[in-house]
Amino acid sequence: MNTRETLEKRECEFLSPYAVTSCEASRQREEEKCAFRTEFQRDRDRIIHSKAFRRLKHKTQVFISPDNDHFRTRLTHTLEVAQIARTIARALALNEDLTEAIALGHDLGHTPFGHSGEEVLNRLCPHGFHHSSHSLRVVDILEEGGLNLTNEVRDGISLHSGEGRANTLEGKIVSFADRIAYINHDIDDATRSGVLNENDIPREFHDVLGETHGQRINNMIIAIVSESDGKNTIKMDKKIHAAMLKLRQFMFDNVYKTPAATEGEAGSVAMLEKLYSYYLNSPDKIPKRQFLVSKSVDTHRVVCDYLASMTDLYATEMYRKLFG
């Protein structure tokens, strides 16, 4: 029995009956199995070593072009989601490796300039654009001809947006972890930027969720584990869940749409609009490799793939080169 087979045997012995085990994993294209790593561990490694994953370090989370190194980027957000998701999966005896792989890949399809960039591409591209479905396109097609991830990881990546949509409990965990991470780290970033301070957060949230960043995350995790342990479902304690959703709305009203958070948004929107128009009308200016990677002759699709792959820095640099 090799190392992988030993790990698979341990999963079958110790994981919850509701967990997805590695020996159940399937891929679109059959591959020879690794002697040391399970299928979900291989997926995790492929995502970490991908170019799309590395580019996340220069993609906006909330604040565009922050002047402080401590603000979250799309990469640090992804790592926080993975940590929270693994903690929950471990407590529930679900598959940590599957959970981690989904978490690490869930935002690979994000555009430069955060959700404002996503809205631009969705408006301009006839095919529409959503980062969840584009993340799946990244791992299936755009990243070195496709990573050939397991169907279980692909499902979690494409269905991570919103609660309870994924078809595995591990995928559902990532959906919750995504919200837990961004609500809390956005409070931290907003406080650091001066948009918000802890005293601005209504007392009702402190009373229910906790006083500090760590307490809020811990209480939200406990609220999931306590409600989901031993069950074929992932849910959160109703009181905590209601408070979390109200806090999320508070952040939309008091942070995400404030001038400090949207500073530079108009400029980045105009930048992407002009780049989209330029490449659409001058497809010969798009690197030839992009057409091969996109596996499409549809110029809208190729332009959308190209712009979505850009980091904030690269999009800005290309704009300067083209338009001064």
How confident overall, as mean pLDDT? Answer: 92
CATH level-two architecture of the largest domain: Orthogonal Bundle
How many domains make up the coordinates?
Answer: 2
Q: Main β-sheet, in a few words? A: none
- Helix content estimate: 55-70%
Q: Per CATH, what is the topology of the largest domain?
A: Hypothetical protein af1432
Q: Estimate the global geometry from the Cα principal axes.
A: flat
The ordered H/E elements are: HHHHHHHHHHHHHHHHH
Q: Strand percentage, roughly?
A: under 5%
CATH class of the largest domain: Mainly Alpha
Structural class: mainly alpha
How would you describe this structure in keywords?
mainly alpha; flat; 0% strand; 2 domains
Q: What does this entry look like structurally?
A:
The chain has 324 residues and is mainly α. It folds into 2 domains: 39-108 and 143-263, Orthogonal Bundle (Hypothetical protein af1432), CATH 1.10.3210; 112-130 and 264-324, no CATH class. Helices cover 63% and strands 0% of the residues. It has 17 helices and no strands. It has helices at 3-14, 39-48, 51-55, 74-91, 96-105, 114-124, 131-142, 151-158, 169-193, 203-209, 213-228, 238-256, 259-262, 265-281, 288-294, 299-309, 312-323. 44% of the residues are buried. The model has no long low-confidence stretch (mean pLDDT 92).
